Amino acid sequence: ADIVxxxxxxxxxxxxxxxxxxxxxxxxxxxxxxxQEYIFGWITDGEGDEEPKQIMWLTGPAGxxxxxxxxxxxxxxxxRGLLVGSFFFSAVVKSNHVRSKARFVITLAYQxxxxxxxxxxxxxxxxxxxxxxxxxxxxxxxxQLEVLVLQPLHDCRQLIDELKPDKRPRVIVVDGLxxx
Length: 180
Prior knowledge:
Keywords: Repeat. The chain is mostly helical.
């Protein structure tokens, strides 16, 4: 197994920086600043909370800019080295891969495998898991998540903890769950 196995099975078009999403909405400068600052504060300082939360759920009526906000957040996290991966489900994109959960976990695993701070350790564990069980791509999303994402991250927890906190990848952005 090599990177091609994950690439060909991923929904590259669902990633925040894909060519398919090139025209996707992002926040214009100086718009939605308070919401973005709140989210970044949670990302960067949330571990210091008395009871840290691991999930933030952004809700709002259709058309209020949630996708634009999440696109901007994903881009900023990516440039700061904080983004582990992203997946933007979309009912309007022509590709079935971004409308279905079938490639969701594999796309996250692909992004982890490609992350500069994670590829030599966690990325190798992911590829090793594929070699150990090439049928993983046909198993349930729960099984894929356990084998391709959670177990490799768990196995390398100490390495991740040793990274500088301001450069520790820790954000996964998922947008449009209601569209899959």
